[in-house]
Amino acid sequence: MSIDVNFDFTSDTPGYWDSFWENDPVLGHSFKDPDGLSKKMHEYHRLLWSRELPNGDIMNLREEKKYLVWKNFYLSPDSIIVSFRNGRGRPLVEKALTTIDNPRQYIEDYLHKSYTIGGSVVFPVHINSMNQRRGCSVKICDRWDLTLECIRRHYAGEESPLSKTTDADRAFYDLFIDFKGFIDFFLLNDCVSSDYSKVDIWLGKGDFNEKALPQTVEEYFTYINCQLEFLKKRNERIAKFANENLK
User: Fold this and answer.
1) Torsions phi, psi of 52, nearest 5?
2) What pTM was computed for the model?
3) Which end of the chain is more exposed for a tag (fewer CB within 10 A), N or C?
4) Which residue from 27, 28, 35 is spatially nearest to 10, judged by alpha carbons?
5) Which residue has the higher pLDDT, 4 or 87?
């Protein structure tokens, strides 16, 4: 099975686009989540991560209902490309979209791009899991760059807004030995420095003392464009890995 990094997971999520604009005439909304419903997304994650871990174990994932399971680990896909269309970010997104032509087409194109394999990772799933807490924390606001900084701090033994979450899943993070192991395994190299000492922060300083949400239209598009550049590079990296290893 090959990996098509351009495959759009909304296309095999039953009902994703049904009444999308009727549900929300301004920003659009779907009640169907590709993270849980796209069979192709789960299949790609199973293929990519069923291999030798940095600690020497062989992770052999199997599908079980909506989870990927190995030993006592229940993993779930999590989209890491955010639009800020919901919740606290909505007013700014509405304002930002008034500056572009055809905002509905912009949103649809953005979602088609973001729901490719480069925009998805897996985390352990349980109450107060990473998938939940990074979206609920006002210090993170679902930002992937800030989430990854929390993971870097976990391996460095430093505190972060998600310390309780990463500590609860210490057994999962121990599979990768260190931050470099985590980054290399999940092909996230395009979001860190070459020596793995720093995370590329797409907006602000990344010290968690600033507001996580973009505050201006300019900041909004700066963050969105940084995400899309990372997504492009990670998809290219995944494609290269798949062509060399999944035959």
Assistant:
1) -70, 135
2) 0.96
3) C
4) 35
5) 4
